[in-house]
Amino acid sequence: MSNHLKDQSSPYLLQHAENPVDWYPWGEEAFAKAKAEDKPVFLSIGYSTCHWCHVMEQESFENLEIAEILNKNFVSIKVDREERPDIDSVYMSVCQALTGNGGWPMSIFMTPEQKPFFAGTYFPPISSRGIAGMHDLLIVIAEQWKCNKEELILSAERILTHIRVEDGSLCEHMDTSLPDAAAKIFAESFDEKYGGFGGAPKFPSPHNLLFLMLYAQINGKKDGFAMAFQTLESMRRGGIFDHIGFGFSRYSTDKYFLVPHFEKMLYDNALLVMAYAVAYKISGDESFLDTAEKTAAYVLRDLTDKDGAFYSAQDADSGGVEGRFYTWRYEDVLRLLGKERGRRFSRHFGITERGNYEGRNIPNLLNENEIVDSFEGEKELMYAYRKTHYKLHLDDKILTSWNSLMICGLALLYRTTGKEMYLKAAVRAQQFVERNLAYGNTLYVSFRNHIRFVKGFLDEYAYYTAALLSLYEATGEEAYLKRAEQICKEARRQFADEGGSGYFLYGEGNDSLIMKPKETYDGALPSGNSVMAYCFVRLFQILGDQKYERLAKKQLAFLSGEAGGYPAGHCMFLIALLFYLNPPRKITVVLSEEDSGEEIRKKLPIYADVKIFAKETEEYKLINGKTAYYVCEDHTCLPPASRNPFDLGA
Q1: What per-residue string of b and e applies to 264-302 under the rule 16 or more CB within 10 Å gives b?
Q2: How far apart are CA 203 and CA 196, in angstroms?
Q3: What angle do the packed helices 149-164 and 134-147 form, to 10 degrees?
């Protein structure tokens, strides 16, 4: 029998639509029921490709006894954190404040007025070894609500008072010392042997690597390159990269980057395309370009809608077993490829009879073998085999913010390679967003089954503005720049803190919650406030409009105050700050008939504002009939040249 989730669009909510728990979606109906029946609310937040969300569902939410306790004593609400980042942000701050950590599934117990009094993440079904089980926890909370409700309500009020306390400090000026401070923090935590930062688990955090590369390029600090390049190489060599079907998993569970948490997220792969493309432009290392292109190939093959948009994620589990899709038995490789080819392939990718993961094998190159290899035919056979023998759940909802990141990645890859296929894919995705996720200047969060859902939050507007700017940088087409200004203006109108600085996560078109977050910290994704700073800086540098400089300076000052305590956690802001303090050179190219814009473009640096004209203009002329390069930097323009001054790379 279906519960109240049966008509939802979210794949995560639909996964729970047949649970015996009488789930409700977030909304007035659920809270009205809780008030009318004087019951506490159990809020469960997760997402469709979350392994531990699946585990908790199987153990607790499909358990008839636990479901009966929930249905009798609570009103239960399910939330997809990817469709409702506002709810997730508010209650994640509660969970972190009460427990010292957070994650998914997130479990919150609260009053019918949405005020939380208890929080946690995963709970096993039965208590053991000092860990509270869901069954016992529900009975205790239900009893406390009946006998000691006033104390729970007071506890909820105290929790809200605690988490609503704001620092109140306001930084009035940009702190130009923060990039140095962040680079020092990264150097102190860098794993010189295995790459990455700190111990296990290790997350890709590509925006941190992009900061280190930009910082090194601007300041000549080569250790920034070394940390970023070693981390990127280690990730490509490890099992966090899918050597058979390509693309990256969400994070590594060990310090070697060997054993991943196997789910693949669109946003990780989008950001990693950018990081590897930039690393290639700086270093000329072909393995970085190979990784960027293979990661893009994975997204374009496995995460792309027929109309050009990008799906959200692929699950870690196959047949109820985490990683089964991605792991191999030695004998299966030999049977599939033949003994000679199979042994050669296995030697190259570290596949053994003993295995490196629960008796099976995660293909990897931690043995120092060549990254760019000649095993493409073998990989195709193995990819086809596993696709027919195992099935992965696909989260096929289309998110504006994550699609915007992938547009940025593809536009950057086009600028790196000159290959039109990447630009065409980016343009198709942007056109999809305009048709299906935008209504005038209003953006929506997600799209599925021909319906768009939930009015957008700050991240939708900030990321989409950045995507439009990326397309303008790739094409020079003014329409993208004009649209970026429109979306940016709407973001300011909806989310700006008119009485202070920075931007709230949700605005006038969204639900009002118990708190109004103003997120600045970069987690797995850059914060909307940091991306807004980047957009203001780039709009000022492209347009020369002083309005955007004022907005940029105010936002950079605000974020300087926010980042002061831990600048390494605010790398997207630091990228914006470095761009503002070190404006990219301006390169204008006038093409002769002999040269191709695509070939010229891939030889130009990434850190530059580029315009390419197919013919002479009044201001820019050919030189003796040959392609001409006009370069300006630090308020000085060099004489025009007929030879590309950037042939040796960025």
Answers
A1: bbbbbbbbbbbbbbbbbbbbebebbbbbbbbbbebbbeb
A2: 8
A3: 110
Report the percentage of the chain scoring pLDDT > 70: 98
User: Amino acid letter at 273?
Assistant: V
With contact defined as beta carbons under 8 Å apart, do 516 and 506 qualify? yes
Phi, psi of 451 (to 5 degrees): -130, 135
Report how far residue 43's alpha carbon sits from residue 88's, in angstroms, rounded to the nearest whole number.
10
Output the six-digit token pair for 634: 């630090």
Check if the beta carbon of residue 249 is closer than 8 Å to that of residue 260: yes
Angle formed at CA 406 by CA 403 and CA 409, multiple of 5 degrees = 160
In this structure, what token pair is assigned to residue 324?
């089964």
Q: Kindly report each contact of residues 142-150 with a partner whose C-beta sits within 8 Å and lies 24 or more positions away, as own/partner.
A: 142/40, 142/69, 142/72, 142/73, 142/74, 145/39, 145/40, 145/73
Look up residue 211 and give its two tokens: 């900061």
Tokens (6 digits) for 213: 């590369």
Question: What are the DSSP calls for 10-52, one per residue?
Answer: -HHHHHTTTSSS-EEESSHHHHHHHHHHT--EEEEEE-TT-HH
Distance CA(46)–CA(23), nearest Å, equals: 14
Cα separation, 107 vs 89, whole angstroms: 13
DSSP string, 224-264: HHHHHHHHHHHHHHSTTB-TTT--B-SEESSTTS-SEE--E
136, amino acid identity: D
- Residue 192 gets which letter from DSSP? T
Whether a cis peptide bond, with omega within 30° of 0, leads into 105 is yes
Which residues are within 8 A (CB) of 184 and not within 5 positions of it... i.e. 6 or more apart? none
For residues 482 and 331, give the distance between their C-alpha atoms in angstroms, rounded to a whole number.
58
- Buried/exposed code over 481-513 (b: 16+ C-beta within 10 A; e: otherwise): bebbbebbebbeebbbeeeebbbbbbbeebeeb
Question: Mind giving me the DSSP string for 391-451?
Answer: ---EE--EEHHHHHHHHHHHHHHHHHH--HHHHHHHHHHHHHHHHHTEETTEEEEEEETTE
pLDDT digits (tens, 9 = 90+) for 359-380: 999 999 999 999 999 999 999 9
- CB under 8 Å to 510, separation ≥6 — which residues? 86, 455, 457
In 10 A of CB 262, how many CB atoms? Answer: 26
**Whether the Cβ atoms of residue 189 and residue 197 lie closer than 8 Å to each other:** yes
| Tokens, residue 474 | 């790739």
Tens digit of pLDDT for each residue in 139-153? Answer: 999 999 999 999 999
180-211 per-position pLDDT tens digit: 999 999 999 999 999 999 999 999 999 999 99
Q: Pick the closest to residue 207 from 192, 189, 221, 186 (CA basis).
A: 186
Contact call for residues 254 and 242 (beta carbons, < 8 A)? no
- For residue 650, the model assigns a pLDDT of 41
CA distance linking residue 157 with residue 46, whole number of Å:
25
Q: Where do we find the tokens 């659920």?
A: 30
C-alpha count within 13 angstroms, C-beta hemisphere, residue 466: 32
pTM for the structure as a whole: 0.94
Q: pLDDT per residue over 468-481, tens digit each?
A: 999 999 999 999 99
Of the candidates 62, 153, 36, 40, the residue with the CA atom closest to the CA atom of residue 107: 40
What own/partner pairs with CB < 8 Å and gap ≥ 24 does 1-10 have? 4/29, 4/30, 5/78, 9/397, 9/446, 9/448, 9/449, 9/451, 9/453, 10/48, 10/80, 10/82, 10/83, 10/397, 10/446, 10/448, 10/453
